[in-house]
């Protein structure tokens, strides 16, 4: 893996050779050298030869990302905003145009990968987010296993499930999947990379030893998928089993189920990379989008947008669709790219603060950015293929009577009058999962709900029904209890109410 090193050196030589060396470029070589020394020291803290070799490989990948970051910083290569165009018609195919699957046995060429590195910290969780119970006492992982098992048994095929964990979720995940030992399903897990956080001021790594505390390390985003697939041996394993296609999605997206039409489209068109996109709503203005940049299809993330253009980026007029992170990848093409040119995914700089208050940066990448390395396009899919659970308001919707389960798949209740789901906004009192569970004795019936806003210290009793637009606001120092069996239709409640007063 030391092949990555000369690229940094030649870059430094190039930097020295220019006639006007600006300060940033001059310091780039120094920073790269300092980082390389620190990395050598980190690698030196590992005793076991096999562990050391794997860790060295990982650190070389990190170092390559770091030198790219330095180079981009020195040259400040930003996207030229005026060159960004909306994708052409042939770059995004409407889902309605796809043909039905010709042969269910095509599924034997498929493997399913779930990105399972998230901790659910924004919802107040401490373990793997995929272990959260979301519906009928079943977790994200339970639902995925149920879906793929049904796919395998009903079509008599063998679609394996692969879980990419992070060092944060690996132990948890291994513990959870033990219970699936007797299912009709093969589960493979592998760990994504672990990179050192970088001090913002000194540009040196935060950890001092390879076994340093978890908080000094980070998983470098789902764009690390390709590196981790290659180095873990999972890519070669899949190819040796005759798998040709990989369907990738986030483990918290409950809409990301295997779709045979999309697989068929991939086979028919010979596409190497498909990205599922869907129409933007007000809730999705920050989602990454596909663009045409100098005739090439690319993913544009909000973190890459210059500050003066952020409002343009959020506008639904120019960018009508966003990336669901449901990706379909040709494994043979992936092997070719990884072994030939390698992946250069746009670097996303994620600023954080360490426990000791020091500013650090995490260099991350996004899986969808790989589209530029392949012959690929977008597919504009229906909204029901994007049902992520990012907050407790999403959880309320999923747990409610709007959805039922069929073989682990969420199905919208036929009695719902509208195709759209209600807009739900829960205030800070409902942000953490423990609070959310405490404040709903039972999830309300919301089949006929359009909009719900709840803020402040509010508690819901059992068998509450909400219809139309319901707004409940408990002011500072006040509390509202909504009693068992209560029906609220187009109501605004505020103040300090015991609902009997209505």
TrEMBL record:
UniProt xrefs under InterPro entries: Nucleotide-diphossugar_trans (IPR029044), UDPGP_fam (IPR002618), UDPGP_trans (IPR016267)
Pfam families tied to this protein: UDPGP
Residues binding substrate: 222
Annotated positions binding UTP: 129, 192, 221, 252, 390
Gene Ontology terms: biological process: UDP-alpha-D-glucose metabolic process
Keyword Kinase on entry: no
Function recorded in the entry: Plays a central role as a glucosyl donor in cellular metabolic pathways.
Protein name: UTP--glucose-1-phosphate uridylyltransferase
Organism: Cylindrobasidium torrendii FP15055 ss-10
